[in-house]
Write a structure and sequence with these properties.
Radius of gyration: 21 Å
Bound molecules: pyridoxal-5'-phosphate
Oligomer: single chain
Cofactor: pyridoxal 5'-phosphate
Strand order of the largest sheet: 2-8-7-6-5-3-4
Number of helices: 15
CATH architecture of the largest domain: 3-Layer(aba) Sandwich
EC number: 2.6.1.-
Organism: Micromonospora echinofusca
Enzyme class: transferase
InterPro entries: Aminotransferase_I/II_large, AspAT/PAT-like, NHTrfase_class1_PyrdxlP-BS, PyrdxlP-dep_Trfase, PyrdxlP-dep_Trfase_major
Number of strands: 14
Number of domains: 2
Amino acid sequence: MTSTMAARATHAQSIPPSCVHDVYRSVNAWAARTGRPVARLDVGEPHFTPPLAVIEALAAAVRDGRTGYTPAEGLPVLRERLAAKLVEHNGHDTVAERVLVTPGASQGLSALMQSVTDPGDEILLPALHWPIHLQQSLLAGLRPRFYPLDDEYRPDLDALATMGNERTRVLLTNTPSNPTGCVYDADLQAALLELARRNDWLVIADEAYEDFVYSGRHVSMAALERDVPPAERRVFSVYSYSKSFAMTGYRLGYVATPNAAHAATLQVVQEASILSSPTPVQYAGLAALDAMSEVADNRERLRSARDALAPLAELGLIPRVPAGGWFALVDIDGLGTTADAFAAALLERDAVAVAPARGFALRPVITAGRVARVDADPASEHLVRIAFCGEPTQVSEAARRIAAFAAELAS
Ligand SMILES: Cc1ncc(COP(=O)(O)O)c(C=O)c1O
């Protein structure tokens, strides 16, 4: 009995690790082995820190003993404030009862997928996507399908229009996008919403980078259905404190559901998954909402960091300058190497860590409910993702080294 159980691979065992975590681990190991300081352009860890008020609110909550469980859906006072933020800032029509606090956007996304789908349903993911979206889909027992992107990394609407079938349940959108830096404008969002309506898909809109748009503005798809009766709405919006307030390790996010019925289902998933989000962190999140001016400062920091990538863009190495988010894709096509080899060599010779895009374009082949094999979209073989949220001087120095290495390869 024991040996049979040990021999049987579980569904989770068949799920590929996230490239972001893989690269992170291997760069840590390389740094420990060589003792060299590494320019970390592989992960989205900001160089700025949370507002002081956040730190003080967290400490005060711990000191005052405000450390017991909260309701699974979050502190009532925080949900009230988040609902007000969603109305004022994002143009939603919502109330606290439809907003759930989560330990990070990641957990909110995972819980949502479990809450609105059945195993075997299909989810539509962008061709280039954050690998955690894929893992979460697979963990929920979903079959991911991938919608193509155009030359600007925008969803290809014509292709998407042909993709639905009776098992397709969710369209996942991510703007500003990780890893492409693409920002979907209002027309595109309206077209996506219309497609979702026509096909009766739900939409999970990952808006973790909502506050980091450098050209244009962030449009929340849920705002486009604010005049639809709540019972007929289909957009779920997911937000994070990690990016806007540099609170990556605090683990705090929230989900705006379309109506009370969906909120009630998500609440059950959260009761089973988390019992509650960490209480002192929720008080820290409350304080953060009074420090919105720092978000604008953080955006300007990131804008400067993005602009420091101009030399790479001028060399044609970043053909699509990111309009938002924390990441850019470097295109090494024509340099006679692959993204994996480029990233490995860049680390070895210049101590610059980047993430080959292969891991953002995995294509699992699913047989009998298990991932039998994982391929990758060949179009990703010449792309590497760089994070430009690190220390600005380090980012521009790393960009200089990337440009020099590329020039060497080209000559
Ligand atoms: C697209 C996207 N969504 C969500 C997250 C994670 O947010 P959180 O830290 O709140 O879980 C990330 C983090 O990198 C991300 O890139």
